[in-house]
Amino acid sequence: MRETISTVPSPDLHQQVTLLGQMADQIRDTLRRTTIPLPPGLLESMTQLAGSLNRLARQVDHHDEERKNLMALADIGQVVNSTLELSAVLRIVMDTIVRLSGAERGFLMLRDDTSGEMTIRIARNWEQESINSSEFAVSRTVINRVVNEGQPVLTTNAQVDPRFGGQDSIIAYNLRSILCVPLKVKGVITGVLYADNRIRTGIFTEVERRLLATFADQAAVAIENARLFESVRKTLAEVTELKNLMDNVFSSIASGVITADISDKITMCNRATETILGRNACDMVGNTLVEVLPTIASDLIRRVARVRETDQPLVGLEYTPTLPERGTVTLSLNVSPLKDADQTTQGVAIVLDDLTEQKRLEAQRRLFARMVSPAVIDLLNPDELHLGGKRTQITTLFADVRGYTHFSESLDPEQLVSVLNRFLAAAADAILAQEGTVDKFLGDGVMAWFNAPIPQPDHTLRAVRAALGIRDAIYALHRTLPPEFRLSFGVGIHYGDAVLGLVGTESRLDYTAIGDSVNTAKRIQENAAGGQILVSAEAYAHVIHLVQAHMVEPVTAKGKSQLIEVYEVYGLR
């Protein structure tokens, strides 16, 4: 192996050369004092040798100092570039300046991004302590000169330097030795390094100036890297915080949200989507819309393509797909173009809402509305429902199919129910047309009342109109049925007090009317012949001038000790 010989001076070389120079001086002085004859030229040779050795000692001292400075630069460069923490970089740079230059104080200034001014970012003294802001006494004249010219400034005594001697800051702060160098990144001044000594003059030389300028190049790059890293880290923290906020918002949205790229592949979906579709996000992301929603895929893909082509959203699309985990559901979809920051369409965003429960409730309400007046439904408040009732005056109507028992013996159950429903529907429609409340269907009959829960001043007249409507509807129905299916209704109407409210239990409620007046109306209906409308005397008194009627034989009512006076109604006046 080839041996490498080091050219770096030994730490003891300066001492050895100095010692040889001293020995040469002593020998020369001894030769001068001796009386012994000397060979010609010996004294001159010793004098030259002593001088050469002294000059060599000074050169070794100079080179040794430069070696130490270069080693310090290398070490500091390694330390500075070993961290991206801006505060740590600034502290290392400043302490190095003070140590290498022998300064009393050191300041590092960076250009403020907002004002463009040089502001002190860190100040350190020779004891490696931070300087209080009250002691930030520096020469702005020197700093401005460095910033404007982009060249280092060195003054051994600012008090007498013709360049700065007359400046107020130099005099006021008693500034003497000053060394200031620019920090440059790609030719742009980003800051300055400023070192001074307020006591001693001549502290700084060209050696310190060159050294500090060289170090400034490393420091500028390191500081800029640290600033960029801090900026990136701050931006990343803001982006992360914003992303977390968006994730939280995205997750908390009640509607399902799906994003798909231009190839209809799902890129993202929220938690509500998982609940609505009954699938995990990991099973949907990366798959196409066709794979996730196969039962509606053909129409949905066509709609998505239209959104991309027209760059216009589609709102209120309704589908009833069958999902493996949930069965048949009803979904409402809004499809919008998904754009990036440059407003370029990158895919689509689909917002879906589960209408399954809403549709079920609407169907139940429609069914309920066939039995109860819609006005009654709107009046009822589910949050205020409670067991019990309220006494009020109502007009009660009972209608019952005549001949149903004999009729039912000749038909099978399915056909019987079909025919019966047509008659009951005709009766219910006539009652609801007068805004009556259909209480219940009693086999082949129907019970209803008027004036509750919504007050109706003409409620008895409404009941009579409903009865006439039933009669007319039955006659119209007869024209569409074979003779053997032509049944008829008997109707009974009575006016009186009743208690209306909820009866039953908390789990099963029935909104109904209870009272003797209800029973009386039922007994009157039981005595009515097919197609006959009978009203009690109490009810007739409220419509006497509005209807065509005449008194018929009083009827016997079960449970009643006296006969009930009734009138048969033929029509309206």
Could you provide a short overview of the structure?
The chain has four domains: 13-75; 81-231, 2-Layer Sandwich (Beta-Lactamase), CATH 3.30.450; 253-354, PAS domain (Beta-Lactamase), CATH 3.30.450.20; 385-572, 2-Layer Sandwich (Alpha-Beta Plaits), CATH 3.30.70.1230. Helix content is 44%, strand content 25%.
Describe it for me?
The chain is an alpha+beta fold and 573 residues long. It has 4 domains: 13-75; 81-231, Beta-Lactamase, CATH 3.30.450; 253-354, Beta-Lactamase (2-Layer Sandwich); 385-572, 2-Layer Sandwich (Alpha-Beta Plaits). 44% of the residues lie in helices and 25% in strands. It has helices spanning 13-33, 42-80, 86-101, 140-149, 168-172, 206-252, 271-277, 281-284, 289-292, 297-310, 356-371, 374-379, 404-408, 413-433, 459-478, 516-526, 537-540; strands spanning 105-111, 118-125, 153-155, 177-185, 188-197, 256-261, 266-269, 314-319, 322-323, 327-328, 331-339, 345-354, 388-402, 437-442, 445-450, 488-504, 509-514, 533-536, 547-551, 566-572. The strands form 4 sheets. Strands 13, 14, 15, 16, 17, 18, 19 and 20 form an 8-stranded mixed sheet that branches. Strands 2-1-5-4-3 form a 5-stranded antiparallel sheet, sandwiched between helices. Strand 11 (331-339) and strand 12 form a beta hairpin. Helix 2 runs antiparallel to helix 3, helix 3 (86-101) packs antiparallel against helix 6 and helix 14 runs antiparallel to helix 15 (459-478). 30% of the residues are buried.
